[in-house]
Amino acid sequence: MTLPLVIFDGNCQGQHLAAILTASKIADCYAVGQDLGFLLSFLGVGCRYIDESMAHNLIEEARSQGRWVVQGTQSTPMSDQLMMSYSALVDQVIRYPHLQFYAASPSEALSRFGPKATPLRMLSMDLSIIEMCQKRSGTKVDFAGYIRSNAPQRSLFHTALHPNGEITAMMVRSFVQQLPGDYDYLLGYIEWYLRQSEGINCLTYHPVSQSLLNELGFDWGESYDAYRSMLEARRSGDWGALIDREAFYVSKFPNDTFTWMSLMQAHAAIGTLENGKRCLSSLLDLSPGYLYAWTDGLGLLHKHNDQTGVLELIQRAKDFFIDQRMLSQVMAYFCLSSGRYEEAEAHGRNYHSRTPDRADALVPWLKALLALGRTDEVKRVVDYEVSIAGVARMADIRANFSGWPDLKAYLPAE
After folding, report:
1. Which three-class secondary structure state does DSSP give residue 104?
2. Pseudo-torsion of CA 7, 65, 2, 83, nearest 10°?
3. Quick one: which of 29, 160, 390, 404 could link to 108 by a disulfide (CB 3.0–4.6 Å)?
4. 400 pLDDT exceeds 70?
């Protein structure tokens, strides 16, 4: 069967849909834009990013092959769909709704909406916005109703914009049902798998405090209490507690990135290489697009002087990222940790040149320049970045330099 071509626009929710539909062989998908600091994936297949001009080339090629062409576009509070330069060239436009859940993330709500964004106000606003967006999208799936009914009983999001597996399964059904063709059998399997998965979990606002849940009138039960305890043990570095309850955590939360991240870090600190590598493998199966899965895994291997493991990890990164810009970021950190500073500088410079939209792209490049003793270049780069930075960009630079005193020293005083 010839697969339809789907070009997505929108945020990480659309990028995740692109990875899911491509990995499931429902459609051949691309996302216009770039990663947002993590590369969304499904079953080890990452989202493929293109610029808008490349979309025209793909559409022209698909047309010559007689394939169905779709624009996958996000309905937001501001518009029904995003009008792209290729919108008139597609056979079909399928809208998917913007989803959000700021109610359980006071820090994100405060940053986005200010001090009046109390949890209860955010809950009301979240549901109202989802209702608006699903109406704009034309979907037959009632996301707002489902979230209103189920959010009080369990967590449905990992950050304000990152839904879990069961919400993602609903997103996939909403989208795929609008494609021409019969996907019911395959869709049923994908939904079953997604409901057991974590959805988008490269970042997290968990653990949510019990006091916040009380304020919202939510009761997430003993299972969430255990999850909170696991994350709090990781945060405090209580590695022994994590290892002592490893079997329990794996049985309860086997498809959670931060379960395997916590356990890998615990084994890196006080455990064994064998157990640490087992956790690393599970972590990369779940979140290969998460930078710290690679860098923390590298730390584990270096600690035990497992050079074969390092080479295997590098090859696994190359196989996953292929030509995505994040490969340069990962390779820069790999080379830095191995003392290969010239190579690290080249990878870091490449990542920075391909990633002008992200302040974190400065870090590996500048760290390599410092390691090479090229401090004048560090000063020139930082001075230039500061000279062109607006308020938001400057805040991002400071946040990314905060953990590196040697880089922070090059910034002007606040």
Report:
1. helix
2. 20
3. 160
4. yes
